[in-house]
């Protein structure tokens, strides 16, 4: 097996052999090409300690517990209905079945735990049911205020498996689901937290009985099942833990037959003597082996010993001091979930299907809670909403910038509107409405060797790919930049000066490029950064960055809508265009590849997707994009603030500043969503703030790394002012000008929006 393949395989979870993994993706390597991967499984810990009956009997005989009668307290933990894993209302239906049909259990008190139910109406129904039937309960309410403060478990997923990564794309759907649910772990625990409820039941029960049963809410005990459990415990009271296998039921009514004894082959419940020292691990989340984690510690054998520990899983635990001190005792029924297709014992993939449904249920519930309890996204990304801020017209802009803005807007009045149909060369598709532009750093190979049509010169642009040069008229890149910059400047000028000429011309720009059928661009970048003769003349993933400035352009369109220059009919067509382009970004080969980029291309991909989602009021996608951006911080920044990927380029100063500028804009997106990207910091210190500090330390000094062309050092000033607005001023030796004294317009390649000082 070659080195690259081995390196790729090393990233794969150890649940399967290399051969199985690759063949599942349609790659047949042959038997000689693969080998077994080293895998992590709990069984690797070796044989658990053996049960020392004599020692346990002696210790029990010497304990005051030995003189107490065997009394029991049974808790059922009732939580949220998790659709589609459960049917809606199934928790209440099963509770009603228990209350109306379960027999009295000799020497056992029945109690319940109402655990973090987010649907207040459903919670009220459940509590009413318990009170009508006279059963006591612990109430663990869902705390929505505490929930608001809970963040993603970003570092629970190694960056190479983050949802934007290539390795993530190689995983099966069920594995991808598990990656995502790991990101939700802390939120999951703030909502479900069944291990916390189990421990609460145990602590409450210790003062009530000798034996405590903190069971799942869908557990049902027939008289026959209870007799088996009680007799098993009484036969071995010296053993502090009794493992109770569970029988999965498809029809609750079958339990009404006194002779019923279904096969108990499912993951068991655990019964504790009140002096037992082990507890459930409250960090372990619902949906990923929360009870099994304690079975592992106790050394209880089962299929779970062969379950793989995937790279995003918590490590398997070692054996506890009480390992081996258990007996398997009796059985308990698990009531119907309401989803028959997930309980089919004859289907080979039922366990996997249940896992997929459980992951979907967790994500669906938590996404709904985030939408409910977190503030709605505001609609402006980089500009203030003047309607709410109270600033009026040009009074909000300092005088030094007003003249520059009016001059720039007047110049923009003399340009455009622009269209992709204006270019003087035809894209490879032969369709003039397709955006097209050659790959800027790929030059024709001087030797014209077969298979080597191009040579890459990093940082050196092919003629026609430099903005505004005469040859660029053949392509669309210059016109696209004019569209973004001029529309933004005109819309901003209208907001400040209330001159309708500015808004009307800006609106013409938008309609021409995106709405008018005769001039609009097709909603894709299939031919951005093309190498003729390569890959069927399709564009590359990296071409997507040419649309990087869409984020501030969309703020301009919002200003035009507010001014009445861009009406609802226009906007409806524009939103259709954006929605189609967004779908292309998320599903096309180029889009998937760009999303997986580990450098500035990934940063600006997130900015595009997030900005479009914000405009289209897709708050869920905004939050998911920002979630994955936090994983990018771990991947892109070193603990000291360096950007290792950008430091590999021939123009390191440019790319470090350019990428960081993208992060400042993503931080603005987060602010619009009521989130704080500045506050996120990896365990090694990776953060936007640290990256700013590392770069700003070079202000006023010679850049010590490779930079093959001139670098505009003024580009560091907008970064400084963004940093100083968030934190105290950085410790910089060189004198720093006030923001209004710095030029308002930079080269578009710098990633700084026009009039960056104006909000």
UniProtKB/TrEMBL annotation:
User: What keywords are annotated for this sequence in UniProt?
Assistant: Lyase, Signal
Recorded GO cellular component terms are: periplasmic space
Biological classification of the source: Bacteria, Pseudomonadati, Pseudomonadota, Alphaproteobacteria, Hyphomicrobiales
Tell me one Pfam family matched here.
Alginate_lyase
Question: What is the protein's given name?
Answer: Alginate lyase domain-containing protein
GO MF terms listed in the record are:
lyase activity
Residues covered by the Alginate lyase domain: 419-700
Asked if the keyword Iron belongs to this entry, the reply reads no
């Amino acid at each position: 097996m070659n080195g690259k393949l081995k390196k790729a395989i090393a990233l794969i979870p150890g649940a399967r052999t290399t051969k199985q993994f690759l063949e599942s993706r349609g790659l047949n390597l042959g038997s000689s090409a693969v080998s077994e991967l080293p895998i992590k499984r709990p069984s690797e810990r070796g044989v658990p300690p053996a049960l020392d009956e004599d020692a346990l009997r002696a210790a029990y005989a010497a304990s005051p517990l030995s003189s107490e009668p065997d009394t029991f307290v049974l808790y059922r933990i009732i939580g949220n209905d998790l659709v589609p894993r459960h049917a809606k209302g199934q928790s209440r239906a099963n509770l009603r079945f228990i209350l109306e049909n379960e027999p009295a259990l000799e020497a056992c008190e029945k109690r319940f735990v109402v655990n973090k139910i987010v649907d207040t109406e459903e919670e009220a129904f459940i509590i009413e049911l318990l009170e009508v039937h006279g059963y006591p309960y612990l109430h663990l309410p869902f705390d929505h205020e505490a929930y608001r403060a809970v963040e993603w478990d970003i570092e629970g997923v190694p960056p190479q498996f983050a949802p934007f990564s290539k390795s993530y794309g190689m995983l099966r759907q069920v594995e991808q689901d598990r990656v995502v649910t790991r990101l939700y772990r802390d939120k999951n625990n703030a909502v479900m937290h069944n291990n916390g409820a189990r421990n609460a039941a145990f602590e409450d029960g210790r003062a009530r009985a000798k034996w405590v049963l903190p069971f799942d809410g869908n557990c049902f005990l027939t008289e026959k099942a209870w007799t088996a459990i009680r007799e098993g415990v009484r036969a071995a009271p010296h053993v502090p833990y009794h493992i109770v296998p569970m029988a999965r039921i498809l029809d609750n009514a079958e339990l009404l037959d006194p002779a019923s004894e279904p096969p108990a082959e499912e993951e068991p419940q655990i019964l504790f003597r009140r002096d037992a020292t082990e507890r459930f691990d409250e960090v372990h989340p619902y949906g990923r082996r929360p009870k099994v984690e304690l079975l592992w510690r106790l050394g209880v054998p089962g299929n779970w010993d062969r379950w793989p520990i995937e790279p995003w899983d918590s490590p398997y635990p070692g054996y506890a001091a009480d390992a081996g001190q258990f007996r398997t005792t009796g059985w308990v029924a698990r009531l119907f979930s309401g989803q028959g297709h997930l309980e089919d014992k004859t289907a080979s993939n039922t366990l996997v299907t249940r896992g997929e449904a459980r992951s979907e249920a967790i994500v669906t519930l938590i996404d709904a809670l985030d939408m409910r309890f977190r503030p709605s996204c505001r609609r402006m990304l980089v500009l203030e909403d003047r309607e709410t801020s109270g600033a009026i017209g040009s009074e909000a802009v300092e005088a030094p910038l007003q003249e520059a803005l009016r001059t720039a807007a007047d110049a923009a009045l003399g340009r455009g509107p622009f269209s992709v149909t204006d270019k003087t060369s035809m894209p490879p598709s032969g369709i003039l409405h397709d955006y097209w532009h050659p790959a800027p750093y790929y030059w024709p190979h001087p030797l014209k060797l077969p298979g080597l049509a191009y040579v890459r010169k990093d940082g050196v642009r092919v003629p026609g790919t430099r903005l505004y040069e005469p040859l660029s008229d053949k392509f669309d890149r210059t016109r696209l930049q004019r569209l973004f910059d001029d529309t933004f400047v005109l819309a901003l000028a209208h907001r400040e000066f209330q001159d309708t000429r500015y808004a009307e011309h800006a609106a013409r720009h938008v309609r021409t490029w995106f709405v008018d059928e005769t001039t609009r661009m097709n909603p894709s970048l299939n031919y951005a950064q093309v190498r003729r003769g390569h890959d069927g003349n399709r564009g590359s993933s990296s071409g997507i960055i040419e649309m990087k400035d869409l984020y501030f352009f969309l703020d301009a369109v919002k200003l035009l809508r507010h001014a009445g220059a861009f009406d609802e009919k226009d906007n409806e067509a524009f939103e259709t265009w954006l929605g189609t382009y967004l779908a292309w970004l998320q599903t096309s080969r180029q889009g998937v590849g760009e999303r997986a980029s580990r450098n500035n291309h990934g940063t600006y991909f997130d900015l595009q997707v997030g900005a479009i989602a914000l405009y289209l009021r897709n708050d869920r996608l905004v939050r998911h994009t920002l979630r994955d951006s936090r994983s990018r911080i771990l991947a892109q920044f070193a603990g000291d603030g360096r950007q290792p990927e950008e430091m590999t380029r021939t123009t390191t100063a440019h790319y470090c500043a350019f990428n960081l500028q993208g992060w400042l804009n993503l931080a603005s997106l987060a602010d619009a969503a009521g989130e704080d990207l500045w506050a996120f910091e990896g365990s090694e210190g990776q953060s936007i703030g640290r990256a700013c500090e590392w770069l700003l330390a070079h202000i006023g000094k010679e850049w010590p790394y490779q930079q093959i062309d001139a670098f505009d050092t003024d580009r560091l000033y907008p970064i400084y002012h963004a940093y100083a607005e968030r934190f105290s001023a950085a410790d910089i030796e060189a004198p720093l000008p006030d923001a209004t004294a710095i030029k308002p317009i930079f080269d578009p390649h710098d990633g700084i929006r026009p009039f960056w000082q104006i909000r």
